């Protein structure tokens, strides 16, 4: 064993031990789409007096935190996103009506003198926060800039009678404490007791003293307590209170027809304080705990089945070395999982799919190395197995680095341009790429080098798996098909496929998910079977004529509507319960129209940036003709995947966007491997026609492309079958993408490069360029460890 091998082995053991310890002692952090709960995204808006910036949004967040803590939700999470958005995550909350009501209330509390009966129509609706008077630290209010004179504000009291109110004399900021209490002896029911701060208590005394100057029964003897432009209580001042004397105590009581929940909510709103700026719910997602558990179970089954199939496949193809790569694949799973847990990454449903998918893609580097080693053994049959393996790792490094770099670019775009759970997919994909390189270049290399030093493995080349060329390579070499004698015909075929895809987009249209259009999508499970037509008629009779009803999962119903608030969703669920019995909400997505437009715009930006970044990277690493041809093939793949979903009638949503950006990375990955070999062969044979070079490069890399694709296909097929509706569309998009990506890397990218090179004036690449050496200088070939250098 050489020193380098020993270092790799020690490093592999150390990382594996640390990963095992982390796996056994730490638990993953699950997103709400896996553990169940509600996620609400709030958009802060400017008011007439306050701008929704970073500072005011942070203050709004703290007020919301106090409110949510008072609700008793276990382990809520509130974070600011950007300058003016707040993300609220409420684990285990399945009915978000109360939470959304408490969170969304501006809670502007004010106390007014009643000027008399109102003469105009009472004002209704909730004003934006900040339209009321400016609050001082002691709770005193100043009139707003627009002015609110006596009698200008007309509101309905508890009985619906109009009252003319004077300017606000006291605000909620002057309230020191608010508690809900039940008056069992007096029979008044639930009420809210207020305790004022010292200076605010004096204002309260003055306000009630002025009201006491009017006779009993006169409206002007009342004091109106207003919450968000709604009179919640307007009691008469007791006849025992003298004029200009007022109520001396620093407390008062808000009475009304409150339920226990209403009284508690009102108390916590007043105690928490008013929101500095108004907020709007632009996104609300609720996932039932059963759906998350089912997704975890399905993903685990898909991972086990897909990984077992992948391990069996590479063992059959590469025998002993394939079995060692399978061991490294298992180590990759442990390392990547431990990295996710140790870094505190929130594991979302798309992230879970990315983790499973990365298992199938982790064999890519091993396949590249083993195919290179097979070539070395075929070219120089007498060289030692260890020497061929070492050369295979050296020559495969360039393709491994470039292909993984393109995948990391796609992962980075997913993280920075994606939204919500899609960001989790980008993180897990990036961690998977790094872990797969470690498992291939450190763990698998250490195992195979140790095995290559054994005489039995070295002598019996049919056992090791790389001593003889594979059956596919041998057949291709024997047939030697002239693939690119007429390259334009392949471009015509690709153009025809694109035309079919575009026809699907035009004729069938793209079924944009609620995430991109705005609206609400709710999935229900019922105790009794309900067919789609019955459900549609039931909802139409209940007033939901525009609701779109489809089947989902195992007999579940999916209902998609336009704008629908939480009370409307409750009414919709009650209507379904009349036909289906007990009706449970499995999944709920509410997207505001402004956010839908933003997400749709960001999706297009993400695709455009992906194309530009990949083009820039490839232009630096390769000739411009190769870069353009690779990007054309990538766009070809994107159009075919979108067109296939249009023909199939599948929804296009955020998870589909994650799959599409992954397809972009995979497509460029395949093209990079082919063009890396073209560059190498062309540099070594500069006088050979380029179409001949391209044919040889394709025939040499086809085994790698097929073997790598098979690993991913096993995983994706398992996800498509076992993943349910949540992961099926993701798996189908990637299955289509891998198939068309394999096709385009050979029959679109290469013919496109040949066509572009006809007009290009750049000379062939210099010998040795692109093999991982600096500035194209030839690398010094390492001597075989068993070669003492003597020559006769």
Automatic annotation (TrEMBL):
<comment type="subunit">
    <text>Forms a complex with SecD. Part of the essential Sec protein translocation apparatus which comprises SecA, SecYEG and auxiliary proteins SecDF. Other proteins may also be involved.</text>
</comment>
<dbReference type="InterPro" id="IPR022646">
    <property type="entry name" value="SecD/SecF_CS"/>
</dbReference>
<feature type="transmembrane region" description="Helical">
    <location>
        <begin position="627"/>
        <end position="648"/>
    </location>
</feature>
<comment type="similarity">
    <text>Belongs to the SecD/SecF family. SecD subfamily.</text>
</comment>
<dbReference type="InterPro" id="IPR022813">
    <property type="entry name" value="SecD/SecF_arch_bac"/>
</dbReference>
<keyword id="KW-0472">Membrane</keyword>
<feature type="transmembrane region" description="Helical">
    <location>
        <begin position="488"/>
        <end position="510"/>
    </location>
</feature>
<dbReference type="Pfam" id="PF21760">
    <property type="entry name" value="SecD_1st"/>
</dbReference>
<feature type="domain" description="Protein export membrane protein SecD/SecF C-terminal">
    <location>
        <begin position="279"/>
        <end position="448"/>
    </location>
</feature>
<feature type="domain" description="SecDF P1 head subdomain">
    <location>
        <begin position="159"/>
        <end position="277"/>
    </location>
</feature>
<dbReference type="InterPro" id="IPR055344">
    <property type="entry name" value="SecD_SecF_C_bact"/>
</dbReference>
<dbReference type="InterPro" id="IPR022645">
    <property type="entry name" value="SecD/SecF_bac"/>
</dbReference>
<feature type="transmembrane region" description="Helical">
    <location>
        <begin position="730"/>
        <end position="756"/>
    </location>
</feature>
<keyword id="KW-0811">Translocation</keyword>
<keyword id="KW-0812">Transmembrane</keyword>
<dbReference type="GO" id="GO:0006605">
    <property type="term" value="P:protein targeting"/>
</dbReference>
<feature type="domain" description="Protein translocase subunit SecDF P1">
    <location>
        <begin position="58"/>
        <end position="115"/>
    </location>
</feature>
<dbReference type="GO" id="GO:0043952">
    <property type="term" value="P:protein transport by the Sec complex"/>
</dbReference>
<dbReference type="GO" id="GO:0065002">
    <property type="term" value="P:intracellular protein transmembrane transport"/>
</dbReference>
<dbReference type="InterPro" id="IPR005665">
    <property type="entry name" value="SecF_bac"/>
</dbReference>
<dbReference type="InterPro" id="IPR005791">
    <property type="entry name" value="SecD"/>
</dbReference>
<feature type="transmembrane region" description="Helical">
    <location>
        <begin position="351"/>
        <end position="370"/>
    </location>
</feature>
<dbReference type="GO" id="GO:0005886">
    <property type="term" value="C:plasma membrane"/>
</dbReference>
<feature type="domain" description="Protein export membrane protein SecD/SecF C-terminal">
    <location>
        <begin position="575"/>
        <end position="756"/>
    </location>
</feature>
<feature type="region of interest" description="Disordered">
    <location>
        <begin position="111"/>
        <end position="154"/>
    </location>
</feature>
<dbReference type="Pfam" id="PF22599">
    <property type="entry name" value="SecDF_P1_head"/>
</dbReference>
<protein>
    <recommendedName>
        <fullName>Multifunctional fusion protein</fullName>
    </recommendedName>
</protein>
<feature type="transmembrane region" description="Helical">
    <location>
        <begin position="424"/>
        <end position="447"/>
    </location>
</feature>
<dbReference type="InterPro" id="IPR054384">
    <property type="entry name" value="SecDF_P1_head"/>
</dbReference>
<feature type="region of interest" description="Disordered">
    <location>
        <begin position="759"/>
        <end position="792"/>
    </location>
</feature>
<dbReference type="Pfam" id="PF07549">
    <property type="entry name" value="Sec_GG"/>
</dbReference>
<keyword id="KW-1003">Cell membrane</keyword>
<feature type="transmembrane region" description="Helical">
    <location>
        <begin position="705"/>
        <end position="724"/>
    </location>
</feature>
<feature type="transmembrane region" description="Helical">
    <location>
        <begin position="654"/>
        <end position="675"/>
    </location>
</feature>
<keyword id="KW-0653">Protein transport</keyword>
<keyword id="KW-0813">Transport</keyword>
<feature type="transmembrane region" description="Helical">
    <location>
        <begin position="603"/>
        <end position="620"/>
    </location>
</feature>
<dbReference type="Pfam" id="PF02355">
    <property type="entry name" value="SecD_SecF_C"/>
</dbReference>
<keyword id="KW-1133">Transmembrane helix</keyword>
<dbReference type="GO" id="GO:0015450">
    <property type="term" value="F:protein-transporting ATPase activity"/>
</dbReference>
<dbReference type="InterPro" id="IPR048634">
    <property type="entry name" value="SecD_SecF_C"/>
</dbReference>
<comment type="function">
    <text>Part of the Sec protein translocase complex. Interacts with the SecYEG preprotein conducting channel. SecDF uses the proton motive force (PMF) to complete protein translocation after the ATP-dependent function of SecA.</text>
</comment>
